[in-house]
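Sharing a chain and its predicted structure for anyone who wants a worked example. Both blocks are below, sequence first, tokens second.
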Amino acid sequence: MAAVLIGYKIILGQDANGEDIRLLGAEILNGTIVMILITCTISSFATQKAAIVIAKSDLLKSTDSNTLIIDNTLIGLAKESTIGCLMQLAMSSVDKKKNNELYGLHIITAEKESPETINRAQKLVDSAHKFAASADFKFHPVIRYDLNISSGIINTVKEKNIRHFYIGLHDKSSLMDTFFGNLTRDLLSKNDSAIYIYKSTQPLFIEWYQRITQVAINTGNHMKIFANLATIDYLNKLRHKKSSIEFSQFDDFEDFLVIARDVIKDTMLIVGLARKTGISFQPSMDKIGNYLKKYFNDSNFLLVYPHNFGKTNEINIYENTIEHNNNYKSIKNNINAKFE
């Protein structure tokens, strides 16, 4: 517009009628004004449309990024004796094409902090790192200082967006201690990630590229699934052509010991459980710990608590005390009955 105005003001002479002959005439000036009006109007709408497209593109990229982060896997590094089996299970369960990164966590509590515990933590991390490197996984060690182990794990799960957490079965330290322990109960009640509690008597020998449902496909082994008829019907629809899976009706965890005859040597028992707040929870699931301890102590077994899609409920802080009192009363009554 400025250039046109300058050209309009430059007078080259006059015509026969005495009118000024300009470098750029009135027609060009008016045409420029109309062009500016049209282009400004169109450009505003075009910019708005392009901005929406860019915003949607950024949202999709953000969603894809978050999907990868949510699928992160964390392994609890508590003891040297369990690191190998936990790392092997975790690595065998991950699809490396989607995410080949693993996190390893060791918690140092305030009362146990010392040069010895720090050195021990570093050794555990180094050992886990070697396992990950051998299978070409990226390993992210996390040595965390926290008030207690439970809060350290829960906070790490939130910070790293962990969806799958692998932990070894704890050792009972006293008669009052439960099969799963207070730590596992805290993790189940206060975080939503999938928890895999693993007790191994034999090492895994074949890599699994996907989660539990892909075991039969990837290992070439036979899998027998015990479930109710509705679940069996649903799983049959999702069945992979290459899988070798057999289904058997199983409706109630009260009949859990029926499965014992199918758990032979070299068999791995996988039990899908539910949190007490989950819709799949059955009260008889509370007995699974005792069954495993008594009848499956020499077997490989894996306990899976699936990802909790709802918010976990707050658990009354007195629950542990109540359960301990009940355990104490039960033990006391058994002792009294024995000596009467």
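Comments welcome. The chain has two domains: 2-66, 71-209+252-329.
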